[in-house]
Design goal:
mainly alpha
Length: 49
């Protein structure tokens, strides 16, 4: 959670208070979107090859 908040602060330029003032449901949507696996066309590219 700490790493996610730091990333959001860096990406958006907002301070910690602005991020913590977000509605919890919106914050959880952002978390789920960041943790969603990316689709790849091959297994080699999926594992960094």
């Amino acid at each position: 959670m700490k790493k996610l908040i730091y990333n959001m602060m860096h990406e958006s330029g907002k301070d910690i208070n602005e991020i913590l003032d977000m509605p919890f449901s919106f914050f959880m949507e952002v978390v789920e979107e960041k943790n969603k696996p990316k689709k790849t066309k091959s297994l080699i590219s999926a594992f960094g090859g």
